[in-house]
């Protein structure tokens, strides 16, 4: 999907968990399945689309909140090792694609009926279920549960000084990227990510030794690229991931 459309979706998406009793449109389902196939081919992941999503959320979900009328889920399946950067990056790409299509969503990293999802997905040897994304059409008003969860989840954009170190000569493209990172959702309600810009190079890392935050770091990486208007690759060096843009605009 066009990356400019995905970038625009960052600033209008809000996490929702109470949906209308209305199935996804045939077009939305078709486009999302096509995006999943494209992303799987590119990334080597085994992301899967599951209809009738309410069966995975029909009871209180571990204290994280109740879900209503979930129409479908995207199951993020990939390597069992951590951190899970690729599932976070690719999952957020699908979340934003859903937003472009008018479909609402919610990242669910741990508090869903994992066994029920595992019974429905195809897991090859060496694969694991990393997280799911709930899909549906939300109403104009938030439910009581959504309002409470919004209050406790700190949905407001994270303050930029807590996300990166600003040095003299920091380019505007980096700042635009960080503004998009500040709008990121969290698969585990942590946002334990941090970016640096030094010697003309962007680096991203998990903070506080949080090895389980790979999903969030992957989400942040995509948001940075889209916000900065750049495409490229991330390479691991020690505890950091360095960004190599296709065009060296920095």
Automatic annotation (TrEMBL):
<dbReference type="InterPro" id="IPR000415">
    <property type="entry name" value="Nitroreductase-like"/>
</dbReference>
<feature type="domain" description="Putative nitroreductase TM1586">
    <location>
        <begin position="7"/>
        <end position="228"/>
    </location>
</feature>
<protein>
    <submittedName>
        <fullName>Nitroreductase family protein</fullName>
    </submittedName>
</protein>
<dbReference type="GO" id="GO:0016491">
    <property type="term" value="F:oxidoreductase activity"/>
</dbReference>
<dbReference type="Pfam" id="PF14512">
    <property type="entry name" value="TM1586_NiRdase"/>
</dbReference>
<dbReference type="InterPro" id="IPR029478">
    <property type="entry name" value="TM1586_NiRdase"/>
</dbReference>
């Amino acid at each position: 999907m066009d990356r400019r459309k995905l970038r625009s979706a960052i600033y209008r998406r809000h996490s929702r968990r109470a949906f209308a009793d209305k199935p996804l449109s045939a077009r939305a389902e078709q486009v999302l399945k096509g995006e999943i196939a494209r992303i799987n081919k590119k990334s080597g992941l085994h992301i899967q689309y599951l209809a009738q999503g309410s069966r995975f959320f029909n009871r209180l979900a571990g204290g994280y909140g109740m879900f209503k009328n979930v129409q479908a889920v995207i199951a993020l399946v990939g390597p069992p090792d951590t951190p899970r950067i690729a599932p976070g990056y690719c999952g957020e790409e699908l979340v934003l694609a859903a937003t472009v299509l008018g479909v609402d969503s919610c990242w669910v990293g741990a508090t869903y009926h994992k066994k029920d999802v595992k019974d429905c997905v195809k897991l090859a040897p060496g694969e694991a279920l990393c997280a799911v994304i709930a899909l549906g059409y939300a109403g104009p008003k938030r439910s009581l549960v959504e309002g409470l969860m919004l209050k406790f989840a700190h949905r407001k954009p994270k303050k930029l000084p807590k996300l990166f170190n600003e040095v003299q000569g920091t380019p505007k493209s980096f700042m635009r990227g960080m503004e998009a990172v500040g709008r990121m959702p969290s698969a585990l309600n942590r946002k334990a990510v941090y970016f640096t810009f030094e010697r003309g190079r962007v680096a991203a890392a998990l903070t506080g030794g949080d090895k389980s935050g790979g999903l969030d770091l992957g989400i942040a990486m995509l948001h940075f690229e889209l916000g900065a208007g750049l495409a490229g690759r991330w390479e691991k060096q020690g505890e950091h991931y360095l960004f190599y843009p296709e065009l060296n605009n920095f």
